[in-house]
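tool=predict chain=A
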Amino acid sequence: MSDLSGVELRQLRFFAAVAEERSFTYAAARLGTGQPALTRAVQALEATLGARLLERTTRRVEPTEAGRRLYEELSGLLPRLDDALRAPAREAVLRLGFTWLFPEECARLVERFRAETGAGVRLVRRDASLAGLDTGETDVAVLRGEEPEGVRSRVLFHEERVAAVARTSPLARRRVLGWAELAGLPLVVNTVSGTTRPELWPENDRPQVACTAGNFDEWVESVAADHGVGVAPRSAADRYTHPGVRFVRLKDAPPVPVRLAVPARGPHPLAERLLGLVRPVS
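tool=predict ok
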């Protein structure tokens, strides 16, 4: 009797795909894997079972009698198994942290994640540099800026910066400000969730910090009071209004990387699934 302990679920899924597509090429494309890996998996399954499952010709692939019988069993078994394996995730809720503004691009990613896993997602705002990742309040988080220590991340997209000025300031009449111009102006800095620090400018030509804020709301009120100029991602101008603040386009400003991050150690399995859906950004 064959030792079936070596049969892998992946091998069964691969075989079923080839049986349905009648082609290794089409099955590999459907599964998102390479054809050599698919061929090796089917061959390993045949070796373990001690039976040929597929007849290969130059033009077509056909299941053998043994292959047809196995496929008939799997066609009912695999969907039930998939449903059983998804059941724990459907009861889980992934806590997705953010600091001051949740990106629309990330909302689309969450919808895809929900569709693929059946898991719930709860948005959690935390006015902290890691949006609750370091304290265990969140499982995954949207962060802006460079990758901090203690996390693994993937960049979702890059965002332009804009300047924020008080409407009472002469700068509010400008349509564009240059990044270099800001070096000679007082700067309002959000030290917790902000992305702009004097260190972004050349060492011998940096703006002076006029005041600091611990969150976005304090930051924008300080700008409205004309304590100094603020710099924020473009989404702040697109989605936030304040009667005392005008956002002005910035020329030559470095973009802000927006990233999805998980703890470097022991991340939630569903957080890894969400991170895996992020497509590489050039």
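The chain has a mean pLDDT of 92. The longest strand covers residues 151-159.
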